[in-house]
Design goal:
Two copies of one chain form a homodimer.
Chain A: H1 12-32, H2 46-49, H3 62-73, H4 95-107, H5 118-135, E1 148-152, H6 155-170, H7 174-177, E2 184-189, H8 194-202, E3 210-213, H9 223-235, E4 239-246, H10 258-268, E5 271-275, E6 300-303, H11 305-308, E7 316-320, H12 323-330, H13 340-344, H14 363-397, E8 402-403, E9 412-417, H15 421-434, E10 440-444, E11 447-453, H16 461-477
Parallel strand pairs in A: 2-3, 2-4, 4-5, 5-6
Antiparallel strand pairs in A: 1-7, 6-7, 8-9, 9-11, 10-11
Chain lengths: 478, 478
C-alpha cells in the first residue's frame, strides 16, 4: 500500500475500504454457505471460458474483482466450509485463523532463518511446545531437549521429511552424500495414505521398496506381519529404514497399534514415524489419548491443525525426537545465508527442517486459534464431533439395509448398503448430485464403501440428522 | 464463524468488527514500517520469554491477541516490507495480494483435485497461461499443449520437482520404481542457489553427484565447462540427467547463458531447468527479455511472483514443456481420491504436480495482483526498480573507495570497499545495527562483498539515496 499518488500500488485508504468489503464478503459467505450446493456443478472448462483470454493492460478496481469472485469463482467452488461437507477429511478454517492469516499476509515476513524474523521462529517453537502438552505427546518432542516441532505445509511433506531423516540415520549420511543404492526399504500398512508411496518415490528409494503391510480385520497394521517383513528384507540384504504407522487412516480411520509397532521398530533400529493427520486432534481430550498409546517409541510424529483444529490450510505440525538427522538431511549453507545468530548455534533456523527455503508466518494463525478457543473450547468442539459420529454409526447399525464394515472409533464412519457396489455407487452419485451434502468413498474388503467424515467446524446435530434422512431417502428410491 | 450462541467459534458480527481492526492494523503498519529498525534487535530467546508458558484454558479476546502482536511480536520482526529492506531478494506483498490471501483463507477450499474446487484449478491454469504471454515465455509452456504451469510454494520445491521429472525421464521410470542407483548426475553453476544441492540430496541422487560448473568472470556458468563435465561423466558410466541454469543468481544476479547451455542440453539429451526466481519478473518488460534468450531449449522454468511481483509468499510459478514425466514422477491414486472428472482425463489434478497433496487457493491473490496493477502498472514498477539499481551502481563507480566486483544488469548491485574483508564486514555490521537499512553479503572471488537488492515494493529514489549516504557515512567512520 502506498500514500504516493504516482505509485501503482493500492492507496492505503483504499485498502482500508476494500479490506472492510472483503471481510464483510467473507462473513456473508459463511452465513450463506450452508445453502449452496456442496459439490460444484460446473463442467470442465466452464470457469476458464468465463475469464478474459488476456490480462488487462491497465489496472482494474477491487469492486470488479470481488464481483467476479461472486459471479464467476463461487459457482466453481466445492464448499469445504459448508456444514454439509462430509467428504475426505475436513479442512477447516475459523475466524481467528482467517485473521491470523490476514496479519501474516500483511506483515509478509520471511521466516527462513531466525534472524530474518526472530518472532516468526520463536512463536512457532513456543506454540508447538504448547501442543506437546495439549495433546499429551511424549516430552521428548519438546524443543527444549534434542527434538522439537516445526510447521510443514502438509502431512505429505512431513512424512517425506521423516523419511529423509530416517534415510540419513540408516545410511550414516551416505544417501545424502553419494545417493541411494536401491537397498533401503520402507513399511506402512496396506491402508495407509498414498503420501508414503509418493515420499518413497521422491526420496529415490523406489516404490518397489515400500512394503504394504497386511492389516487385521479392523484395517489396522498387523505388527507380526511388519516384523516378518523387516526380518525378510534383512535376510535378503536390504536396509529397512522407515516405518510409518497411521493413527486414523484416510480410508476408514483405522488406528494402527503404535505400541506394538514401536517395540518392533525399537528392536530393529528402524525409524518410526506416526501420521495422525486428522485424528491426532482428538488427543486434545484425555479420554481419546488411547489412540496414540506407545507414541514414546516414535522418532517423529505429525498431525494437521488444518484438518480438524480450525486452522486454515496450510498447517501441519511435525515433531522429531532428535533434530540432528533431519537437519543433516536438509541443511545447506551458502555464503549469502550465513549470519552471526545462526553461527552461534543459539537459534533454530527452520529452513533446515523442511523442503522449501522461504516460509511465511504460519504460527500466527495457530496461536490465534489456540487463544481464541482456549484448550477447553477446542476440546468441546472435538467431543461434539465425535459424539455426532457415534450417533450416526448407531443410526446405521439400526437400519437393516446398511452395514458398518469397519470400526468407527471417532468422527469418521464407513457404511454401505448390503446390496452391493452398484447400489452404493448409485446412492453416492445421487446424494452428491443433489448438492445437499458431499460424501466420498473408499474400498474395504474389495467392496465400495461410503464414508461420512464429521468434522467440519459448523456441522451440528441437525446437519447429520438431515444427512442420514437424505441417505435413507435416496436408498428408498434406488 | 457462527451465529450459534452455544458455539465456541467467533461470532459472525464479532468477525466483522475484528476483521476491520485487523485491516486497519495492517494499514497502520504499512504507514509506519519505514520508521522501524529494519533488522530486528531482539536477542535469542527474548520473544519466547515474553510468552506465557502454558496455553490458555479458556478463550481470549481478539483485542488481547492484536495487542500482543503489537507489543510482543512486532519488535521481533525483521521488516521485509520496509522500503529500507535491501537484503537477500525482496519478498513483497501488496494490497490486492493481501486481500486475495484473505479471501482464500475465508473460502478455505482445497484444490488438490479439479473436483474439489474446479475454479481453484482453472483460475490457476488460466493465470499461469496469461503469464506465458506477459513474460514472453515460449508458447510450449502453455497448458493448451503438452505442458503447463502450476503454483509451487518456492523455487526450491520447483527445482526439486524439475529434478524428479528429469530423473523419471532419464531412467524411464526406474528411479521411481526401484530407486536411484548412484549413477545419476546433475549440474549447476558454482554460483547457483543452494536449493539445487538440497534437491539433489532429497531426491536420493547424492550431493557428490552434483557438479558445480565453473563460472566466467561475470559469475555466469561456462558452457564449455558444462559440456566437458557432461562428457566426462558419460565416459565414466554416469547418467547425466539434469542441468539447472540460473537467470539472476542470488549471490550476484549473474545471468547464465541459457541459449548456449540449452544447445548443450539438447545435444546431450539432458533436462534443462531454468531458475529465474527473482529476475524472471524483469521479463514483463520487452527490453529485459534478453535475460531469458534461449529459453526455448528449456524443459522447465520457474520464477517467483512472491519475490518481485508484489504477491505475498508463497507463490512460485513453475512451468514444464511436457507434463507427462512430472506427473509420472509424482502421481499416486488411492481409491479415496478417485472420481469421474479425474478419470475422464479432461481436467488437471494439480496434486500430481508437486510434493504436497493439499493446496490452497493461491491463484486468487496472483489474479488480484495482475488485475490491480495491469500489465503496464507492473512494468512501470519493475522499470522503476531497475532504474534505481542502475543509479546506485553509477554512484558506487564514482566513489574511488568502492568497487563493483560483478555486473549489475538489473536491480541487484554487488559492491565493496577496496580495503578488504575486515573493513567490509565492519561496514555491513554498522549499517545493519543502525536499523536504517538492511543489507546482506556474499563472497565473490573469495572476497566479502556487500549486496544491495532494490525491489521492495515501496522503495523510492529517496530510500536509495539515503542508503548510499549512510553507506558513505559509515565508510568515513571506519
Amino acid at each position: 500500500m502506498s500514500d504516493n499518488p504516482r505509485s501503482h500500488h493500492m492507496n492505503i485508504e483504499d485498502f482500508r475500504r476494500n479490506g472492510r468489503e472483503a471481510i464483510d464478503w467473507i462473513a456473508d459467505y459463511h452465513r450463506k454457505v450452508e445453502s449452496l450446493p456442496v459439490l460444484s456443478r460446473v463442467r470442465p472448462g466452464e470457469i476458464r471460458a468465463a475469464l478474459p483470454p488476456d490480462p488487462p493492460a491497465e489496472g482494474e478496481s477491487f469492486e470488479a474483482m470481488l464481483r467476479d469472485v461472486e459471479e464467476i469463482i463461487l459457482p466453481g467452488l466445492t464448499h469445504w466450509q459448508s456444514p454439509n461437507f462430509f467428504a475426505f477429511f475436513p479442512s477447516n478454517t475459523s475466524g481467528p485463523s482467517i485473521l491470523g492469516e490476514l496479519l501474516s499476509a500483511g506483515l509478509a515476513v520471511q521466516g527462513m532463518m531466525w534472524t530474518t524474523s526472530p518472532a516468526c521462529t520463536e512463536l512457532e517453537t513456543h506454540v508447538l511446545d504448547w501442543l506437546v502438552g495439549m495433546l499429551g505427546l511424549p516430552e521428548k518432542f519438546l524443543s527444549t531437549g534434542k527434538g522439537g516441532g516445526v510447521i510443514q505445509d502438509t502431512a505429505s511433506s512431513a512424512s517425506l521429511c521423516a523419511l529423509l531423516a530416517a534415510r540419513e540415520r540408516a545410511t550414516s549420511g551416505a544417501s545424502n552424500e553419494i545417493g541411494c543404492d536401491g537397498r533401503l526399504t520402507a513399511y506402512t500398512s496396506a491402508q495407509a495414505h498414498s503420501s508414503i508411496e509418493k515420499a518413497v518415490k521422491i526420496a529415490g528409494i523406489g516404490r518397489a521398496n515400500l512394503r504394504a503391510i497386511e492389516v487385521d480385520s479392523n484395517f489396522a497394521m498387523r505388527p507380526d506381519a511388519l516384523a516378518e517383513a523387516i526380518a525378510r528384507d534383512r535376510r535378503e540384504g536390504k536396509v529397512p529404514c522407515f516405518v510409518c504407522a497411521t493413527v486414523g487412516t484416510t480410508s476408514s480411520n483405522a488406528i494402527d497399534p503404535v505400541r506394538a509397532i514401536g517395540e518392533i521398530c525399537r528392536d530393529a533400529g528402524v525409524w518410526l514415524h506416526v501420521d495422525a493427520a486428522m485424528s491426532g486432534t482428538a488427543a486434545l481430550c484425555p479420554e481419546f489419548r488411547w489412540i496414540q498409546d506407545g507414541l514414546e517409541f516414535a522418532d517423529s510424529y505429525c498431525f494437521n491443525p488444518h484438518k480438524w483444529m480450525f486452522t486454515n490450510f496450510d498447517c501441519d505440525c511435525f515433531y522429531v525426537v532428535d533434530r540432528a538427522p533431519l537437519i543433516e538431511a536438509l541443511s545447506i549453507l551458502p555464503e549469502y545465508l550465513r549470519n552471526q545468530a545462526s553461527a552461534s548455534g543459539a537459534v533454530i533456523d527452520y529452513r533446515d527442517w523442511h523442503v522449501p527455503l522461504g516460509r511465511r508466518f504460519r504460527a500466527l494463525k495457530l496461536w490465534f486459534v489456540i487463544r481464541h478457543f482456549g484448550v477447553e473450547g477446542l476440546r468441546a468442539e472435538v467431543r461434539r464431533h465425535i459424539d455426532l459420529g457415534q450417533t450416526f454409526a448407531r443410526w446405521v447399525s439400526e437400519d437393516p439395509r446398511f452395514e458398518l464394515p469397519a470400526p468407527a472409533p471417532l468422527n469418521l464412519v464407513c457404511f454401505r448398503l448390503r446390496s452391493g457396489d452398484g447400489q452404493n455407487q448409485a446412492l453416492l452419485d445421487r446424494l452428491n448430485a443433489s448438492g445437499d451434502l458431499y460424501l466420498t468413498h473408499t474400498r474395504l474388503d474389495g467392496r465400495l464403501t461410503l464414508r461420512i467424515s464429521i468434522g467440519q467446524a459448523h456441522t451440528e446435530f441437525r446437519h447429520v440428522e438431515k444427512a442420514w434422512a437424505r441417505i435413507r431417502e435416496e436408498a428408498d428410491n434406488l
